Q: What sequence folds into this?
């Protein structure tokens, strides 16, 4: 059976993990038809997922996205109609869009991996097989998590994110990724875009956090350890904390990142010169040259600097598997 999404009267946010186990009554599965796993075999995969949910007592409504930036509105509409569980099937970009429509509600969000990297699913140790994750949902428990909020492009862009924001080099890579190549070869498309920048001069910018200013060519603000589904750049953060881990990389020469990558592969990145690791709840990023510096959130291009990024505490209810929840238990509430 599954955790009921309704919020019992008087329940504090820090007690959400203790909700009694009941069946969800109105489950909505929002999926991205363009996600990698919904290719030629997508109809069968979707049908099987619904069968598993139905067998476990769910009344399921299936709702496909109809284009970019539509998933959030779909989630809000279904919550307004009484949905008590939202399932997001797609990549991290789809999950990001669905979450955008759910921030500040208490309806739980569950993640079904169907995209290129599936960072959130990998972070929580759910794995990348959609049907296996569907079968495991009954073990999961709702927990409140903080989210990040980005404002950039002179205030024209205002978006939330679950995983990370990146400015500089990695956002430049996202900018150069070919959508067609990504659909054919998946994550390798990011490597192709990354290596195409090798030898180019990088633009540095300023990062203001904790009363200090740092200059770098790549800034990662992360709420998760997993990066791209394969690596760990931030080592001391989790979804339940109300801070970002900032990892900042200095240097104008793109060839310097070959050394950084070697340090990452050898698990010695944070001991290297040119790498700064710190924590913050609010960060300001500003360009120091008349140049376009891009920002990505959850692997999708969001806009350009200048930008302000901050934590929004306890903004979303997320279904998490027991092993991830146990690794980061709810803090004890002191009464005196």
A:
């Amino acid at each position: 059976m599954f955790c009921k999404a309704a919020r019992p009267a008087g329940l504090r946010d820090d007690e959400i993990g203790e909700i009694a186990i009941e069946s969800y009554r109105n489950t909505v599965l929002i999926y991205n038809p363009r996600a990698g796993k919904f290719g030629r075999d997508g109809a069968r995969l979707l049908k099987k997922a619904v069968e598993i949910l139905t067998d476990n007592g769910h009344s399921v409504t299936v709702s496909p996205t109809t284009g970019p930036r539509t998933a959030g509105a779909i989630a809000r509409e279904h919550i307004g109609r009484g949905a008590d569980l939202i399932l997001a099937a797609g990549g991290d970009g789809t999950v990001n869009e669905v979450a955008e429509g759910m921030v500040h509600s208490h309806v739980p969000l569950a993640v079904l991996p169907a995209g290129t990297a599936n960072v959130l699913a990998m972070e929580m140790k759910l794995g990348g097989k959609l049907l296996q994750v569907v079968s495991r949902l009954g073990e999961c428990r709702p927990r409140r998590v903080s989210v990040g909020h980005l404002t950039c492009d002179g205030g024209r862009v205002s978006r939330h994110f679950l995983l990370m924001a990146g400015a500089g080099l990695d956002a430049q890579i996202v900018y150069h990724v070919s959508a067609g190549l990504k659909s054919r070869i998946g994550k390798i498309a990011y490597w192709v875009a990354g290596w195409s920048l090798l030898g180019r001069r990088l633009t540095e910018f300023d990062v203001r956090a904790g009363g200090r200013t740092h200059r770098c060519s790549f800034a990662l603000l992360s709420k998760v350890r997993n990066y791209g589904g394969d690596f760990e750049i931030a080592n001391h953060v989790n979804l339940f904390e109300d801070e970002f881990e900032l990892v900042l990389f200095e240097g104008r020469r793109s060839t310097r990142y070959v050394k950084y990558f070697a340090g990452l592969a050898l698990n010695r990145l944070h001991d290297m010169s040119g790498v700064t690791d710190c924590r913050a709840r609010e960060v300001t990023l500003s360009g120091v040259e008349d140049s376009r510096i891009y920002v990505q959130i959850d692997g999708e291009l969001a806009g350009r600097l200048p930008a302000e990024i901050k934590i929004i505490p306890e903004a979303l209810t997320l279904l998490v598997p027991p092993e991830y929840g146990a690794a980061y238990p709810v803090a004890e509430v002191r009464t005196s």
Q: What stands out?
A: The CA atoms of residues 197 and 254 lie 7 Å apart. The mean pLDDT is 85. The longest strand covers residues 307-320.
